[in-house]
Amino acid sequence: MYQLRRKKNVKKVVPFTMMVVGTEGTGRTTFVNTLCNAPVLESSEVFDPSQAHVERPVQVKTYHAELEEDDGTRIALTVVDTPGFGDNIDNQACFKKIVEYLETQYDEVLAEESRIRRNPRFKDNRVHACLYFIEPTGHGLRELDIELMKRLAERVNVIPVIGRSDQLTPSELANAKKMTMEDIQHHEIPIYSFPYDNEEDDAETIQENTELKEMLPFAIVASTETVEIKGQRVRARKYPWGIVEVDNERHSDFLTVRSVLLGSHMADLKDITHDYLYENYRTEKLSSSVDNGRESRLLNPEDLANQSYILKEEQLAREEEKLREIELRVQKEINDKRLELTAREQELREIEARIARERSMEAESARLKTEPSEDGAAAEQQGDYHHDNDQGAEAAATNGENGHDDTTDESTNIKQEPE
């Protein structure tokens, strides 16, 4: 049974969708092609200086690739690219188009949920992560970056990266990371910062997420070209001053980003997308039939009314669930306190019993020390008594001897008188 289940899991393909956003020249295309180890994204068109005055609208294109990890896991990767972003003086239209794409994917899921008969072949195209490529200028974020990142962060997990970071010296890169994070914190941009729960997550997860958070923004070097180093072909960029290896963690955060997206944090990115970002959008949408002045093209008024009723029921259910969780937590705290009190009472009883035993042992020891001295005194008195008796006997014997001599003398004197 285990073997069959394992084979079935290997055949299952895990879907994952990511978006790449950044101005031209930040390394979006090279990164994706390096990630997939294949030419998935198209190279940018050659810029024509004669057309510089013509504004080019941003495009939203999707690409698909299937990857297989070392453990046999197959990933159906969808990449959403945004060529043309940042090329115009006024980029408000670019902001709107990119955000609308994200919201459209939410609308499709919402519309599917409102149907009585759902489509078993429905494909969820919600974007789980957005890699936002920052220009390697070493000066932090531009106003363009700040505004779009704020808008994107409401609909998708935004992960900031510095593209083509090999253009910066180590000190310049460290300063660029510092300034970028200061801008993000100052403007309160809610990026994906590898959250964790101190109570629920284990120490290893907390440490890993803490280290990843400290690495933000990631510094990426990507390349589809290979060079030979010590007899092995490795992906790298070759310069007159040296070689930058893509898969060397001392040179680039590429492997770390790949592991985060396609391995360690894929499930977390999906969970946050569904449980938090989508639910917030769904609540906003169902609270009103108009969202940000844009009527939904996928939901009719009847569907919205039904969904509003469902939303209220779900809100009540969530509130009841929260109350149950609070009751369980309070009951658990009470039980823990009772157990703690019982344990302390047991400890107190054991201490009292130990003290009583120690006192009993001390009293017994004192008694044993006292009894031998009393026996010795009695023995001494008995010895004195025998000694006195011995002296009396000796005196009597002496007197007896003296009396015998006197009698003899008197007898002798008497016998001599007749003469």
Automatic annotation (TrEMBL):
Septin-type G domain span: 12-288
Keyword Chloroplast: no
Subcellular location as annotated: Bud neck
Region of interest: Disordered: 360-419
Main location: other
Pfam short name (any one): Septin
Biased composition range(s): Low complexity: 392-401
This protein's GO CC annotations: cell cortex; cellular bud neck; septin cytoskeleton
Keywords tagged on the record: GTP-binding, Nucleotide-binding
PROSITE patterns referenced in this protein's UniProt entry, alphabetically: G_SEPTIN
GO molecular function, one term: GTP binding
Composition bias type Polar residues, residue spans: 410-419
Biased composition (Basic and acidic residues): 360-372
Family classification: Belongs to the TRAFAC class TrmE-Era-EngA-EngB-Septin-like GTPase superfamily. Septin GTPase family.
Protein name: ARAD1D04620p
Organism, as annotated: Blastobotrys adeninivorans (Yeast)
Source lineage: Eukaryota, Fungi, Dikarya, Ascomycota, Saccharomycotina
